Amino acid sequence: MKKSIFSMAASAFMAGVIITSCNSSAQKVEHAQNNVTEANKDLMDANEEYMADIERYRKETADKIAANEKSIDEFNARIENQKQDVRADYKRKIAILEQKNSDSKKKMDDYKIEGKEKWELFKTEFNHDMDELGKAFKDFTIRNIK
User: Fold this and answer.
1) Residue 26 is part of which domain span?
2) Positions in the chain short of pLDDT 50
3) How would you class 76 by CB atoms within 10 Å of its CB: exposed for 0-12, middle for 13-18, buried for 19 or more?
């Protein structure tokens, strides 16, 4: 009797394992499909966020470059009242600032989308360049006031 109960319990256990493993495969496939769908959605969201970051940054830098161009125009207007030799020195310095500003604009316009890591590296380097340019404008303004 013990043997028959044990063999029936073992048979029931095996039947349960077989039934659950069949369902488990189907569930695994469905779960994997859900994971793929979720991963694709996350990837699309990340790409949209990445593209939005690029556009937002381009707008910010375009605004900074436009502000620099306005400052250059103001500098040119201010130096017209200076003596000839001082005016020539200022014009040379303004030309340098103008060239750096246009180089920055060209660098931003020429950036090709190559991936998030390269974007972060480009953005860090470009921020450094823009900070240096901003300091140069500020230094020029301070010297121009004196």
Assistant:
1) 2-145
2) 144-146
3) middle
